[in-house]
Fold this protein.
Amino acid sequence: MEARCFFRAIPPKAGLPGREKPDLLSIFRLPGLSGYLGYDSIHLMEYISTRGSAPAIPSKKAIIKGIAEDNGLYVPSTFPSFGSAPFEGPQNKTYAERAVVILTPFLPDFTDAELNNACRAAYGKNFESPQTAPIKILGDGTAVLELWHGPTQAFKDMALQLMPRLLSFALKGEKERYEVVILVATSGDTGKAALEGFAGAEGVRIFVFYPHGGVSEIQRLQMVTQRGKNVGACAVKGNFDDAQTGVKQIFSDSAFNRKLSSHGFQLSSANSINWGRLAPQVAYYFTGYDDLVAAGRVRQGQPILICVPTGNFGNILAAYYAIRCGLPVSRLICASNRNRVLTEFIRTGVYDRRREFFKTESPSMDILISSNLERLLFELSGRKADAVVRWMKELGVQGWYKIDPRGLDELQELFYGGFADQKETLAAIRGAFEQQGYLMDTHTAVGYSVLHKYRQETGDQTPALLASTASPFKFNQAVLEALGRDTSGKDEFALLDELSTICGQPVPAKLAELKSLPERHNAVCARDEMDRALCQFLRIT
Ligand SMILES: *Cc1c(COP(=O)(O)O)cnc(C)c1O
């Protein structure tokens, strides 16, 4: 099959400001010049709501607010155009330096110093790989983009190491002085990544609720051993839904919020719809491509496939935005587990959440409502907010919606949707290890399996970049079972050691050290005591 190049195929539509001021925006990529020109005199990228009735705001405000007052999600008013080679100059740029290049036009109200400072701190020694997000080239035309060398061994670190630093800078510009309290309900991974990201952030405190007895022992240890003066965690007697419902109630309790505000606190969330979590993810698709070119695997400008194991649609949306900015990609492959609501959406144009929910071996992708899809719908509709409002209302009221045939054509021109069940996922782990000598986690394996299905179905042999979202050590039990090992009766640390022996790589230091760290956060509360637990953490009565 001939590779098509989607980024060329997008006609420059009226009302689509993506190519409005490419020359102007490219000025801002010249080092040092953006600060010199002064932002006020020039119209820069702002953030608009997907639901159309909230005012456009600068990126700092969008990161502080998280969600727009019309309940829409903030999207960039324009897309900068980078072409396929945004990183000029010497080939030895660090990940942090390359991230600054990509982030600058998206975050124009941050100064060069703020962006440089934030990226250097986010993508430095706290990543176990000096390349931050290295690619590993397999023998079958696939390169794996490893996004999990951060402190929590999952890809959420790529965003959550940077976003708190951006938020701190954004808060400094606010007239009113208050301390932001980030509240998180977690089923395991996000809580730790948020704690680790916000630990030590200026002007911010973070408190995480997790289900008592409802997370893995590694995940519990990761949270309760978290260091930092501004962090706290509390187990809730209940399941994840109880914790999440409790957090939502705290957010909507206006009397409680007034009380917090009288003590100088303002609640906020760090969930994956915040622009501050999405923007950092655009960068690694460009660095991954850059690394493929440097390794001689693709020619500069040659289109590739990108495959992303998907849950809330954040990671793959960032790839879509990279394509809109000029990254040469012929096909974007959206891989789901048994919760295949996105596969069906891409194949039929119908999004239907009325279905059974499955717990799988790739728990971070067990999602039936992919919040960030709303941002793609906005683009597919030609940026028509009223269509987005209608679909989101239908999703809430009747549980499903259907996009129009034109939008579906455009969706299918770029996206391929597929899914892998548990058997296929475990077979992919074993196959990649035996045939390619590469050990991957269960989430990445869903992507690998779907990528192979795509190649078989279409015959398309274009080189592929597969986003790898977690370290195999983090999901050690399922990975060992995929390799045919008996895991019964062994504790987490025995499993880590066994995996290390098999793959010949050391146990990630941050996981190994959990065995010896003191437990700092031992609070447990009932479902209706979560506000009290929060007050105790903030030391208010
Ligand atoms: C969060 C997560 C995903 C899903 O990413 P989305 O941006 O929600 O699509 C996939 N794999 C792992 C390991 C994750 O933690």
About this structure: The chain has a mean pLDDT of 90. The longest helix spans residues 275-294. The two ends are 67 Å apart (CA to CA).
